[in-house]
Amino acid sequence: MTIDLTRRTLLHLAGASSLSAAAIAAARAEGNTAGSGGPTFANRTPMRIGMVTLRVRDLDKVADYYRDAIGLTVMARSETGAQLGSGGVPLLNLQRRENAAREERNAAGLYHTAFLMPTRKDLGRWLVHAAKNRVPLSGFADHLVSESVYLDDPEGNGIEVYADRAPELWKWEAGTVAMATNQLDIDGLLALAGTQTTNYAKAPDGLRIGHMHLRVGDLERADRFYAGTIGFAPTRKRTGAAFLSSGRYHHHLGINVWQSAGAGPRDDAATGLAWFSLEIEAQQILEAQQQRLRQAGAAVEAIANGIETSDPWGTRVRLIKV
Asked: What is the number of other CB atoms lying within 10 angstroms of the CB of residue 8?
């Protein structure tokens, strides 16, 4: 299979006729109408994404998807749930909820889970795997700080698969990082991977969740919770969205109201995001978070190695000391 043919295959899977059309689709995925550092940077900051738990109706179908399409390893599986990860590190929990209602797109909740490849070459290898296995895609884009591909799992949970550029290439000005939604250099990615065969048997051991992107009902209220109380620092704001991080990563968390402005409390019985965890490097950070949460009147529950709380729409967040 030549590079050009693989490129056309990827465009077909993304439902696009050209790279510019695919960039427009990726822009919609990000709400934008206008050498790799990898997870070693994203996951050594004082606070970073740990695990994600989703409620799903068809456990087998969704678990198989993350195994086959993304390459996660099934670490545990039962009648009621499954745990998947990479390199022995658990990243995704799935909980069977056969009779659950589907969470609406305009509700608060998950926008996408972003799986961060260790290197740009790994992203290219995965693209070849996606093309050869006809994995449906929804768009691709170059965000300046990273290169990204978008898709959805069988129950509509958004996914981003991406690779970071080296942090020294990111451009910062007055605490704001430059990001955009440009055309992805598919040919350059594929040239790193080779297109004759796919050697992507599973996700690389260094794959991690680099960031979470959430739908919220109100940006200011979400910012007060995730920045003021949890302690993330803002890195970029734009119409209808904000991005936050720890340790000058471009973003560990995206929040937007593109579909969900005015959304009320989430339905705990519906499908979608049940909880995600933040790994906390220092005990004093966790203690300060707990104090701010109590001062804000948020419910706080003790769990193993940390605490659990909920954002204003009921998305549960676990703060775990590592």
From this structure: 13
